[in-house]
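User: Can you write out an input/output pair for a complex, sequences first and structure second?

Assistant: Here is one pair. Inputs:
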Amino acid sequence: MNVKFIAGVDIGGTWVRVALCTADLIEKNIKKKITRTLKETKYSISNSICQILSELLSENHINKDQILGIGIATAGPLNMEKGEVFNSSNLGFSVIPLKKPIEKKFPEIPLYFVNDCNGSVLGVHYFEAEDDEKDNLVYITMSTGIGGGVICNGHLLIGKEGNAAEVGHALVEPRSRFVCNCGAHGCWEVFSSGTGVQNRALDALDEGELNAEILMRIVNNDKSKITAKEVFQAAREGDELSKKIVDDCVFYSKVGIGIINNFYDCSSIYFGGAMMKDHKQIIPSLIKQFEKDSIRFTINHPPKIKLTKYKDEIGLRGALALVKYKIDKEKIIS
Ligand SMILES: [Zn+2]
């Protein structure tokens, strides 16, 4: 038996996902495991990756030497060359080494790193994009924050360290009083990410100008229970304050898409991330805007707006696709 395999890892703020698949990346051969992202020490994440990967190998009777490569997609910022995450508010340490500790456990297996959204766009590219959109393709995650991955002219945009396309920090309202995690005022994710929606709802409650009876009923009058999920639910039920916050989330997403399309002239933008649980309140308005009146937001021909069908797994699939593209020496990542 000399079947070869590819391993993929997706490191997020809450979950670490690991997958193994035959090197042909046939969907039905993907085996996966998931564990909580541990934040006890800076080595907690690399330790759990090694442990789960070892478990996957032994459960499936696969030897280390059958693995052609391990692709690692991680929440950033990432230093691709060093294989470490730096300054991550999500992951809890100023530097999180990945490459060195994983190499120790799996010597001689090539490791490939990619920032999670750059990985996700590779996942879309390999597993679901149509032929006519593959060369100019964007993936956007709307989750705790907002991130992006861009394929332009058939090449994945990577940047000097691996963090090109940090589109969530596009300044959509630089004179806003609302400050982003990054320190700037009025980034897109200040209005349209999960944290942004939550914080904007809390601000508006403090201001007290809009009626929020429905929202407060949903959280039993406990403001600390408000997250984006409750705001979207309240908006569906007609809550005045929540509708305004959801409208802003959608409006600034249009601004963000406009900026992306002006810069990258993309054929399609796929959306994913936890906020897409409420995609019915987000995506149709975006599609309508760009189909009917795109010129308000972008000078270029508008992109198609889509939803990834792989939900939380698109990053993991991207990590697998990354290894396949490396092995096949595809120009997309050269
Ligand atoms: Zn920012």
